[in-house]
Amino acid sequence: MDRSSFDKLFDMTDRTVIVTGGTRGIGLALAEGYVLAGARVVVASRKADACEQAAQHLRGLGGQAIGVPTHLGEVEDLGALVETTVSEFGGVDVVVNNAANPLAMPLGDITVDALTKSFEVNLRGPVILVQEALPHLKASEHAAVLNMVSIGAFIFAPALSIYASMKAAMMSFTRSMAAEFVHHGIRVNALAPGPVDTDMMRKNPKEAIDGMVGGTLLGRLASADEMVGAALLLTSDAGSYMTGQVIMVDGGGTPR
To answer: Which long-range contacts (CB under 8 A, 24 or more apart) does 115-124 make?
Structure first.
């Protein structure tokens, strides 16, 4: 390897990346990482003002970015997100399925509405979004999909069974997508965060957070920025021989 090849490993220049749930938490950290790596970034989130604020912030980092209000549970929004991205930036190279609904409900009390809502946002939305982007991913020379799952898909998840099961299903879709899309040059991987210091995490009771932290070897919450390295690895040329995989970024909480 020479200097030129090395410098291109994590370089995302001239690539267009869609990040759902991209206005705060892990999603915003990933969007920042992609912009700093040279990508054009489209942040999608339910709230229009949050989308515009995030896009302005990303442009302030020196990148090209737009915000597109999108509800992952509304199927028609997904095609519109892809169309807007393509009309603005000319294509789609990377889709990061980060938006999630962390609905918690103990078994025995689970409602049909709760299951449906979680399914629509955590599973149906991400799968349909990839399908909507597929023609553009096929046309890209650097196509990649990153599905953000959760360490909950691997461990006991009392009270979080709805969320954990949807993430486990998304992991299965990741493997199937990797196998079906490989002939089109599209790599598909997943990233499973452990406990991360985000708004979503802070809504949990202190005992629950302490329990999650206690289950890690590093003994602390991650910062959202600590997800960026793994995400870039899985979606840049640095990960060119990786597909159908799940990387756990969980502070050593899950021996595999």
So the answer is: 115/162, 117/73, 118/162, 118/163, 118/166, 119/166, 120/72, 120/73, 121/72, 121/73, 122/163, 122/166, 122/167, 122/170, 123/166, 123/169, 123/170, 123/173, 124/73, 124/75
Catalytic residue list contains 163: yes
Give me the residue spans of the domains in the chain: 3-248
**Amino acid sitting at position 6:** F
Q: What's the CATH number for 3-248?
A: 3.40.50.720
Catalytic residue from among 163, 188, 191, 216: 163
pLDDT tens-place string over residues 60-84: 999 999 999 999 999 999 999 999 9
Token reading at 100: 């999630």
Q: Is the pLDDT of residue 256 over 80?
A: no
